[in-house]
Amino acid sequence: MERAEWDRRYETAELVWTASPNRFVVEEIAGMRPGRALDLAAGEGRNAVWLAELGWQVTAVDFSAVGLAKAGKLAESRGVSVDRATADVRDYRPEAAAYDLVLIVYLHLPAAELAGVLSRAATAVAPSGTLLVIGHDVTNMADGVGGPQIPDVLYTPESISAGLDGMEVRRAERVRRPVDTGTGRREAIDTLVRAVRI
User: Fold this and answer.
1) CA angle at residue 31 from 161 to 187, to 5 degrees?
2) What is the pLDDT of residues 35-57, one digit of tens each?
């Protein structure tokens, strides 16, 4: 979906997604000392705001001004500040080696476009910093629930890890996430990759 479509989607509800952070973000950054964080394709800001609550200095980037406005309201309601940048992550060039944590959470683009985003995200990670990538896995189409139904925009641990030159991959696997549906609880299958700049 493009910018106008996301703007329309974000205009339709108080929050399209939950205000709570992604469960895997919470698990993976547990124990990390707050520093500078970059949330690429931040949407309504649930992860960015949560990080700010923990003391991180966060920049949230998204091409939807509507989504980022909601992120600003969420931050204000929580008594924290999040820097917001309205930009398309397909073109956005973050400062090199500047962030202790870079997040890409459920950003689904054609493989060639995602490769550029991953490369620039990895470049933005400071020495000893972490890049965390989470998204719908390709196996989710047949064995999970929700998410895009277009194989070319779905992840595998191998495809994400392959795009992280100069980083040490510490975790690359499929993870399961419970989802409540109209027919009961099911599991979605995600790819999770955590890499560190050595």
Assistant:
1) 55
2) 999 999 999 999 999 999 999 99
